[in-house]
Structures are given as structure tokens and as C-alpha cells.
């Protein structure tokens, strides 16, 4: 079973970066899930992640500092939930001189 949600890209007037959403849910073999997580790890290491399914796609650029949240639950509906977020990095400190 697979479910994908995608919101079309929109321009953000304040900084010109495109915004969008991409959601994917699926039941798969554990080995296939491991391959997805390995791709996420590689993307985090390189600072860029591409998500694509059919004509739907989204590219994100994780910052050098990320927030990580992990939730685990054991019971009838056991699950582990990972969430990774980041703020857009500024272009560096402001420098002001008098000469």
C-alpha cells in the first residue's frame, strides 16, 4: 500500500526559494526501508535530498545544524518515528566598518 501527497511548488516572495510538501507512506520489506534510510543518510551527508515519485518531486537542502526528534512505541501498533528539521542558514554575520 502506498500513499503520496504533493503540494505544488510556490515561490516565497521574501527569499525566492520554492516551497512544497512531499508525503509518502508505504508497507514494504525491512530491506527496502533500510535502502530508503541509507539514501536519507547519504543526502544528509551531502546537504541535499531529492524526493521523486512519478511527476512529483521535491529537493531540500538540510542545514549544517539539524534538529532531530525520535519517538518509539512498543505495543499493538509498534513504531519508530524520526523527524529531522533545520532552519535556513543565514549568509553569515553582518560586517560594518567606518572606513
Topology diagram in text:
Elements (H helix, E strand, L loop, with lengths): L1 E10 L6 E9 L3 H17 L2 E5 L2 E5 L6 E7 L5 E7 L14
Antiparallel strand pairs: 1-2, 3-4, 5-6
Description of the structure:
It is a single chain. By secondary structure, the protein is α+β, with helices and mostly antiparallel strands. It is built from 1 helix and 6 strands; from the N terminus they run ββαββββ. The chain has one helix spanning 30-46, and strands at residues 2-11, 18-26, 49-53, 56-60, 67-73, 79-85. A two-stranded antiparallel ribbon has the order 1-2. Strands 3-4 form a two-stranded antiparallel sheet. A two-stranded antiparallel ribbon has the order 5-6. Strand 5 and strand 6 (79-85) form a beta hairpin. The longest helix has 17 residues, at 30-46. The radius of gyration is 18 Å and the shape is elongated. The termini are far apart. Residues 1-16 have low confidence and may be disordered.
Amino acid at each position: 500500500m502506498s500513499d503520496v501527497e504533493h503540494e505544488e511548488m510556490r515561490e516565497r516572495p521574501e527569499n525566492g526559494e520554492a516551497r512544497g510538501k512531499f508525503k509518502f507512506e508505504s508497507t514494504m520489506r525491512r530491506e527496502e526501508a533500510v535502502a530508503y534510510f541509507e539514501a536519507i543518510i547519504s543526502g544528509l551527508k551531502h546537504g541535499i535530498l531529492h524526493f521523486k515519485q512519478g511527476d512529483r518531486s521535491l529537493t531540500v537542502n538540510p542545514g549544517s545544524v539539524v534538529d532531530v526528534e525520535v519517538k518509539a512505541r512498543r505495543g499493538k501498533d509498534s513504531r519508530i518515528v524520526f523527524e529531522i528539521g533545520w532552519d535556513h542558514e543565514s549568509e553569515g554575520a553582518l560586517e560594518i566598518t567606518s572606513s
